[in-house]
Fold each of these.
Amino acid sequence: MSRRTATVHPPAPEASPAAKHRLELLRDMMRIRLFEERCVELYSASKIRGFLHVAVGEEAVAVGVMRALEDQDAIVSTYREHGHALARGVPMDSVMAEMYGKVTGCSRGRGGSMHLFDVDRRFYGGNAIVAGGLPLAVGLALADKMRNRPTVTVCFFGDGAFAEGEFHECCNLAALWQLPILFACENNLYAMGTALERAQAETDLALRAASYGMASWPVDGMDVLAVEQATRVAVDRIRGGGGPCFLELRTYRFRAHSMYDPERYRDKAEVERWRERDPLDQLSTRMREDHELTQEQQNALGAEVKAEVDRAVEAAEAAELEPLEDLTRFVYTESEM
Amino acid sequence: MSRRTATVHPPAPEASPAAKHRLELLRDMMRIRLFEERCVELYSASKIRGFLHVAVGEEAVAVGVMRALEDQDAIVSTYREHGHALARGVPMDSVMAEMYGKVTGCSRGRGGSMHLFDVDRRFYGGNAIVAGGLPLAVGLALADKMRNRPTVTVCFFGDGAFAEGEFHECCNLAALWQLPILFACENNLYAMGTALERAQAETDLALRAASYGMASWPVDGMDVLAVEQATRVAVDRIRGGGGPCFLELRTYRFRAHSMYDPERYRDKAEVERWRERDPLDQLSTRMREDHELTQEQQNALGAEVKAEVDRAVEAAEAAELEPLEDLTRFVYTESEM
Amino acid sequence: MTTTATTTTAQPTYREAMREAMREALRKDDRVFLMGEDVGRYGGSYAVSLGLLEEFGPERIRDTPLSESGFVGAGIGAALAGMRPIVEIMTVNFSLLALDQILNNAATLRHMSGGQMNVPLVIRMTTGAGRQLAAQHSHSLEGWYAHIPGIKVIAPATIEDARGMLWTALQDPDPVLLFEHGTLYNTSGPLAEDAGPVDIARAAVRRAGSDVSVITYGGSLAKALEAAETLAGSGIEVEVLDLRSLRPLDDEAITDTVRRTHRCVVVDEGWRSGSLSAEVSARITEQCFFDLDAPVERVCSAEVPMPYARHLEEAALPQPERIVEAVRRVVA
Amino acid sequence: MTTTATTTTAQPTYREAMREAMREALRKDDRVFLMGEDVGRYGGSYAVSLGLLEEFGPERIRDTPLSESGFVGAGIGAALAGMRPIVEIMTVNFSLLALDQILNNAATLRHMSGGQMNVPLVIRMTTGAGRQLAAQHSHSLEGWYAHIPGIKVIAPATIEDARGMLWTALQDPDPVLLFEHGTLYNTSGPLAEDAGPVDIARAAVRRAGSDVSVITYGGSLAKALEAAETLAGSGIEVEVLDLRSLRPLDDEAITDTVRRTHRCVVVDEGWRSGSLSAEVSARITEQCFFDLDAPVERVCSAEVPMPYARHLEEAALPQPERIVEAVRRVVA
Ligand SMILES: Cc1ncc(C[n+]2csc(CCOP(=O)(O)OP(=O)(O)O)c2C)c(N)n1
Ligand SMILES: Cc1ncc(C[n+]2csc(CCOP(=O)(O)OP(=O)(O)O)c2C)c(N)n1
Ligand SMILES: [Mg+2]
Ligand SMILES: [Mg+2]
């Protein structure tokens, strides 16, 4: 099972391993960015329907975390999970086909944007109930621990989940039972239109998680290298039997919560300030400064990724719909029905 | 509206106000103790059915907290609430009649032991869902705050409620909205058969409550004077607009969780150790040492309280059952039906 | 789902009618307040409360954290303390997180206390499918809620009811759950300038007919009326009854229409097994069995978590064509 | 509610039969584990798991904190990772706190993922009234759960089924909710030494009769059989059908018995409106309307949160006398 699908863009011959690595991170982030930007266009063109939540601006979190995981590790995600899926290696074709509701989609078109699944990659899906995926992650980690499997389960969730009781039940269970689970909190400062300080009595989320007695710390979620580094530290600790860890990944969503959001609750200036910390620009600038990346290479990379997105769209357009007579399949396991 | 029903046992003429006060506290605790001991007998005699949870050993919490409240304050309680009801001034006759399921009961016999209500005394009832009463308390406090009423809502709950998500949602709401609510946690070290350390990753409950940014501290729940004192401090602070407070009232239940509990999960020695700190004995001993109470007075007090319990039992025995034709009353408000 | 600021209009949308109903309640009764996720700054996830924050302020248009059990229970407590809360739950699926409070507290407190108190609370939520929101945002559980004694359940299907049911629900001393079907918000229709409160206890005949009764409610009403039009073309006169109140059910209206037409189809977006349509069918059997010329039929949703793909979602839901077929079967 | 340690016996109680079923499963399949509040040290709130901790240890007999949503969801996750969890919820009322996990996850994950996974989970819980536990501990919601596609719902009413249904449920690749009526635990009856797994898909005729069918399940079966005895005294032969599986329903068994007797009474401890009895009645109308000589009747619980007082609780519940009266009406 391979977590990466397409081959990595060939770096200049003299590139160091570190440089190669950064190039891969940049490339992974670009794949997410261009994929999601295209999805927004496709939504306006009514090719994609339902709710669409993009994570533009938060790509460093998805890429940094996934890079630090092994194939055997499990992931539980949210409804804002295109980036998590792509970074985990779910083929872009199957993700785009899912957005189209086609049978070639990673959930056969039954899930859509909020419910991407790929069990072969232990990607246990997008979950559209805030905090609803956390108990699943606790159970996955519990089973792996009972079976002495050296695996870590990562659960993504947003700052909004902190107000849900389910989150607290899960923190306690994970810490009480010392489960191999990484709580990956994407703190983008808003839950829909509700700013963190209007939703949480105590806004220091890492501190609150620490009150369950687990290792917990904040991370610059706009710096992919920092995210990867922090995740490696956490995952090593967890795999070593150290119990659960909590990472508060401080990030920001550049776009609206969903396609229906007129963004009345925050001002453009704030968004602009954060855009200056665009995780893609930060990394590419640094790589150019370090002479690891030329403008030409960057353009070529962009063109290559754009081509991948184009192919995914073409494939999705051409793909079949599931036959109507299959409507009631997958409610129960067929051998049993 | 009077919170006390019977008159206070007349203290010796030379008794100081402080001595009078302690005598009242002792008397209130004795009323609870003798009432509950009688309930256990009546259960064995099948006069009382359903679940019966007594708080023998925890009387100082009920009496100390209630003493520090005003008539306009509101109370939300649990299924282990006989003591809370009696200390709040719900007449013993109506509580005993409720245990019997009689129409003269404080809930007309529809609630039983776990659902004692007395709205005139703002006693919003026993609730048999662990942590289920907390959201009600948040709402009562919210309404009083919106109406600028100088009231405090006290919510009782056990250590077990800490694991329930509802508890955490309520801590956050109360602290975020700075509501006039007192979280009265009766930490008796067990949730049914589950010891605190096998249920909570972090067993310092006051510390965890503090993580919501509210004033929070532990109190010796076997010392009625300490409980009353701590509650006064908390209630003054809350009434003064200081936002919610949390008290961890460290206590212990001397008897089984309910009448069905064979107590396999704790050893007799532990129970015996705690019995040495019996809140009634502690107070009466101290009063005798301070020459505020003679053995004769204490015996007389016991006889008086026993007589009150006897009268309550007689009244309950003699009381009527609600007529069968009224079965479906009180599901909807009648003017509307 | 964009919207314009409300003005009382002759052709308001369902969304605007609901908003106007809330505005009226907030103006008339200072005990009324609205509480829920993103009802304020955001303007409501479906923009129903847009503009109310500006008019009534953050105390009465109260944004809550994501704590469904906590703030629904808080609504119950506030009602006990004399307020008249309107609690908004974004989508019916999330109400499952608050079900303990709704069933174990709101529905039982009056009875458990021997009638000492009542819970004058209104809980509004969006329900139903049809917008490709998939399996965790498309349930239609209003009929399921109608199983619970101690609460009332209403489902405004028209602009008049969207405008008029809320106030009446707020006058009710007991908890009322009000379900707004997500596909209705953008529908619009004529509304009298002086439109106001309407009763919430009785069903309403939305179309008179003598051949067969189609009993439905909420998001399925328009589909039933469309089917009735089609059938009128082939000479079948359908009477369409809009239940409006799912608990209690208006038995009189149900038996009246069945006694008139002797044939009945119940249309319900809930999953077929155990849906409200079963209760309606069972009651017809109990109350007018010998008036029936044919077995009562049901047109419900397929028993499948709602799929995302449009063609599958459409196939899973009651549609005018399926209603037409069912009617043709019962009149055959 | 005391009990003695289990021995395989010729006259086990329902409690002992359930315990033996769990012990067998834990022995046969090391993927099986039991998780819930007080299942270990305490021995189970109804002593069903008494002694299992000593035999299988705290990893496999796992006490949980009071976190219904958390540990039920954990059971789902563990099932996804290859385990075969048995999750015990003390009482059906508390399952409302876990309903989000049951409905939004357990019932939908397979479908949302396009069939990539399944959830082999068994959730056991105590249900029903009859022990004066009042309005927050006496619900009978198994029929309500039977509305949800993606899960199966079973209700063992006999010692054989208490002994045999669990293993079969654990072999099922999909989530199964198993409801144990609280009044059954102390009942006992003969059980073959070699008793083992039983099917969980089919209903069972518990008493043959030609005059009228009484369809019921779980805690009401004994009441139905008692009523049948009484009626036999006055020459009315009642056939008693035990549904056993509430989802899916055994349509064949239902129609078979109704076609034989042409008259039917459904007995269901759920609140009447929207109870499973409504679904059964509606299906009979749809599947054998013209075989009916009388309208299907229902005997259900009064629509009231369960009162504590014994006389009121008894009056609220289906009782043999009420079943007898209903049968006399339909055969009249
Ligand atoms: C239980 C529940 N309540 C409400 C919603 C509606 N909703 C969807 S996303 C969202 C905001 C969540 O914010 P956060 O957890 O910070 O994640 P983000 O969207 O910022 O990534 C809300 C309220 C939901 N999906 N589930
Ligand atoms: C939500 C819920 N889960 C489980 C139960 C069953 N139960 C009743 S009391 C109890 C223990 C509660 O312990 P704690 O909160 O410490 O209160 P205590 O009994 O010690 O006073 C349990 C598990 C319940 N009533 N409600
Ligand atoms: Mg956020
Ligand atoms: Mg305790």
Amino acid sequence: MSELDAFRTEVREWLEANCPPEMREPVRDEDDICWGGRKWVFKNEAQKQWLEACVSKGYTVPDWPKAYGGAGLTPEQTKILKQEMKRIKARSPLDSFGIWMLGPALLQFGTEEQKVQYLNPIARGEIRWCQGYSEPGSGSDLVSLQTFGEDKGDHWVVNGSKIWTSYADKADWIFCLVRTDKANKYQGITFMLFDMESPGVTTKPILLISGNSPFCETFFDDVKVPKTQYVGEINRGWDVAKYLLGHEREMISGGGAGGDMVSIGGAFAKAFGKNAAGELDDPILRAEMAAFDTDVFAYRAMGERFMDMWKTGRAHPASSNMMKYVGTELNKRRHELVMSGGGSEALEWDSEETKGGARARGWLRTKANSIEGGTSEVMLNVIAKRILDLPGA
Amino acid sequence: MSELDAFRTEVREWLEANCPPEMREPVRDEDDICWGGRKWVFKNEAQKQWLEACVSKGYTVPDWPKAYGGAGLTPEQTKILKQEMKRIKARSPLDSFGIWMLGPALLQFGTEEQKVQYLNPIARGEIRWCQGYSEPGSGSDLVSLQTFGEDKGDHWVVNGSKIWTSYADKADWIFCLVRTDKANKYQGITFMLFDMESPGVTTKPILLISGNSPFCETFFDDVKVPKTQYVGEINRGWDVAKYLLGHEREMISGGGAGGDMVSIGGAFAKAFGKNAAGELDDPILRAEMAAFDTDVFAYRAMGERFMDMWKTGRAHPASSNMMKYVGTELNKRRHELVMSGGGSEALEWDSEETKGGARARGWLRTKANSIEGGTSEVMLNVIAKRILDLPGA
Amino acid sequence: MPLYHNDDQAMLKDSIAPFVAEQAPVSHLRKLRDTADATGFSRDLWAQFTEMGLPGMLVPEAHGGLGMGHMEAGIVLEEIGRNLTPSPFLSTSVGAVAALAKAGGTQAGRWLPAIASGEAIIALAIDEGAKHRPDRISTTATRAGNGFRLDGKKSFVLHGHVADMSIVAAKTDGGITLFAVPKDAKGVTADPRRLVDSSLASHVTLDGVEVDADAVIGEVDAGGDILDALLAATRTGAAAEMVGVGQGAMDMTVTYLKERKQFGKLIGEFQGLQHRAAHLYGEMEVARAAVMKAQQLLDEGSEGAKLMVSVAKAKAGRAANLAVREGVQMHGGIGMTDEYDIGLYMKRDRALAEYMGDVHYHIDQVARMNGY
Amino acid sequence: MPLYHNDDQAMLKDSIAPFVAEQAPVSHLRKLRDTADATGFSRDLWAQFTEMGLPGMLVPEAHGGLGMGHMEAGIVLEEIGRNLTPSPFLSTSVGAVAALAKAGGTQAGRWLPAIASGEAIIALAIDEGAKHRPDRISTTATRAGNGFRLDGKKSFVLHGHVADMSIVAAKTDGGITLFAVPKDAKGVTADPRRLVDSSLASHVTLDGVEVDADAVIGEVDAGGDILDALLAATRTGAAAEMVGVGQGAMDMTVTYLKERKQFGKLIGEFQGLQHRAAHLYGEMEVARAAVMKAQQLLDEGSEGAKLMVSVAKAKAGRAANLAVREGVQMHGGIGMTDEYDIGLYMKRDRALAEYMGDVHYHIDQVARMNGY
């Protein structure tokens, strides 16, 4: 254990020296997140410094090999780094679909050449990626996708459209599922990579009920993609996609696992005041908040258990679906309670006091949790089939 | 209105004169219910007096025609009679599957001869009926029943078995669904009537988790049934059964409609004591009881609305399924709360103080509510198909 | 009275439903929203309401209204809910009318005819904090000169910035007193906020507002009963509107289930969704019955009305919340887009659920009224 | 420590699971029940437990036990739950051991070895009314002669009528004190009641019971912490047992879904049931993780254990309740018969849910521990 202790000390000192104080403030909104990319404009000097410091140590992707821009840390070391960052409330130096999604896919399915070529710019925050999976007609039935790449010898010509491409209007490259064999539903899809500045690519933001537009519709009109730019095998992109969907779920659901045990009732107790018995002074809401806290604290334990088991190969492959289902349903419930706790003030949509309706917009945003990355209904189908082995599921 | 007012006065006076004081006490348990029948032994003189008084006025079945043993009351008059009985907390003079189920079927499908022959003894509590629908292999899929009546010219010879026949061991006659055409699933069932003392009929009580045995398995071994003893048409018994299922649901669900607005929280407040704010001193249980009371009071309103609409032909024919679903699920929830309210005392199974575990047994009994008379799942299927018109439902 | 619409009420519904659907469908709300309308509703539409006599539905005939009941007002409110129509109907024609009619006297004589003729918009200044706590009013009315001086802050005052008069609940020496505070009263500032459902509700500040003695609605210190009447009417009305919102969301969703295909099937064929839709149908029916019962008891002046009003507001809140949540979820991704209407139902539902006491408040009231 | 069973724990599970399933399956409970067994468990089975060292799992090695932790005890309890095995393991080997080990001293020296050797059955006399309210103990212990005189009534005392010693919580001048009251103490009457799950729990009356000064477990007036240790251990153990009950019910039900046909299909093919089964699976997994976390924190002696224990008891209560309710419903009519085991799971679950604080109690504790 003393080696790990030494590592902890080293990390702690490094963080102390390199994490600017501004980067230890809680993230207030979307603007405080560093996404990187060719078009990135740092919000302030501290954000830049913090990213550069982490890049230099490989700490944007600490468990990736050094050759790909990581720090080559063991799982134990990675955990320590995360604990220490959490301890000083350090912000994430870099958020990125490249790190969360494409990276793991390349590490699993990529050639050595691809890993070197694509992973390093991801680790350095130089290239920002977006994901092209869903299509207007597909939805939960992802594999019914129609975007087609016509084989032209050394390249494909891609036509079609994608929907729910997160930040496609801000991304540099896209990883994208494209049908390359119309005769074969599952084994007729290729996992392609291409530059969003390729001729024929256009994007159109989608206005959401929250008033924000983090997603786009993305259109491909005769987009030329060299036949070197794919992951895995041609026509076997579905394998990569499935792997990544599991990863995405792990991410979405695991998100809560390391979080603080913040009590929603505790957070609102001050606003409501307490009665003589020290109880939050809205008895029914208190009961609902307490029931919710109970569920969340239990879920956090499951998050920890899930991560522990996942990392050591003990988890059922489909258990990420269960995590995603339970976690997203809980998060929706949380925000219903936050709105109730906030009362009429939380209804305000653009007032200064409410930071432009932050609570209302956040509440509406959570409604997508149980839709994106596989709907709750699909998660339940998967659990029924793959874990419970129910017939015909 | 004055005619109805006069009727109310008349009823009130009659009840005052004819309903014995013992029959105005709340029903404590099964033993206080009068079921009638050939084997019936009155529990006391008051029970006998009360039944006889009601029979003489036709008040066991007030809305049936006088020729069949009823009082020939209009719906308005029937309502007034019920209100007045409720006012003095009069017990039901006679509970009977003949009144609730066979009667309505005969009124709808029976010949004049059958009505006279069967309804009068029902109204007078002379013949106790049981119902033979479910079979061990059928369950929710009622129409898959296998009990077979072989055509022998002037009679059938019935072989097979029924399950969940309520009080079959105490009943005099059975109304029973029997397959008479194996080639035709829906149009191959006949709604037969026969004496439980017919040779070849045996019954075996089913011990339930509540420790009680209100149901039996009933076996038919070459039972001879004259070809006059059926309702509706031969091979068209399914029409009668469907009609009756609707009626049964109406009964099961409508049961709560006329009940008092008894608050579960109010009933337990004394046992728990109250805090300084006057709240039942178990805050989370209080919240659940209050949420339940809210749902129940709302449901009672629906019960009233449903009955008002049903009687005037305004209700959707499938709305009794919805009433049954909501009502039985609520009743199960109520008994979960009753058990929580009763704490460890309510767990006692045979102690004197708990009247032989009345609460625990009652709680377990309610679990059948959402199974008998059509499961909750079947109810939801029917609502989806017949009310919401969803495809393939 | 049977618990369904009688022939007159059914006729009323038959005329109101197409009227609102044609004149003020969801696109009407979108237009007001997208043009950043500063009134909070369309005065043209209100004029049309007036032509039909709607603003004065509950106003006694003696004051120029139609003398109808809450059951009738509920018919209008359900259609307002179903179409998400922005309208001062609930505060002006239901809440304010209930208070003024109960109180009688000068203010009733002055405002009821003006409401009936469509000339007056009335706001209800009851809440003070972010949650509805009408039993804890801290706005004060102190005797000053010939009348009173009002000081305090009010919140969630729908139409407060445009109302011709606001009904203000204030503490007086011996109880609660309601005041009719006219638009131009000195010391009143209304700071309108755009809410999630695009409606406008004001934070109202009363800073030494001087009103005459006859501004009192009813009697001094005896405002409790009048406030109760106002609250019962407004809550029941909000519940009726929520039934409309929930029903609109449910109908839209059931229709979608019959159109959208996934995995080669209409999604309405999946039993998982069928059962949830059927469950929702049951909840909505229960809510509808509870609301009608509350309306009926209010119209009868029954003792039991207060309990049933809380039941109705809570149950309608639960059922409509389920309807909009299931609606968005069953619509999937497109349900999250501003382009589709289902999200607008979710927003309106949230605002109505909070208005005049949320689910938690009213469930708590049910417990209290039952002695626990 | 990772939150899964390590190799030693997995080995323990691999030996315990078949042992309990073979020696004490549900038929074992049925036999005790149908023969109206008056002990409440099988002493033969307890002897077999003893051969495996189970009664002393948590007893420190110095006192002749195995010195294991709550995670290990939980493995045994889960199997006890899955097989509905009647056993004094929870009260004796978990609750009593936790209290005695925490207290140390004379009583620990006397009883811990006896527990480890399988000789002593211990009962926990905490509750007084029908609900668990350990903060409102009214049983009194007053100084008398060399020791104390105990007066009061206790309820829901599992194994109280056969226990060699009962741990009694009583009020003393300066706080709570725990006493070891031996079986034969004068003035103690245990009135055993058959519960819904066929277990026997006593109403215990303490009528001027005189005990020596050394009957005190730990120190006088300082029983609060020891009681807390007892409660934390017993609650966590009951939660682990409920996970077993819920899991057993769920497994049985999922198997049934794959066997029973209706409408020409296996009922497990119906998506309505699939989704509910999958939801139940998630709830059970969450409950399991919460219980393991509570066990881990207790074993670590962590400050956060108390909160997690309440979370675990409440969550296991909710999940197992869902499992048995769905179990009976999905079994349909046969689920209601005594012949099928699923109903027995419902009964055991109810008793465990109530024991040492029900869902409502522990959710309330979660709120209190979080300051609201």
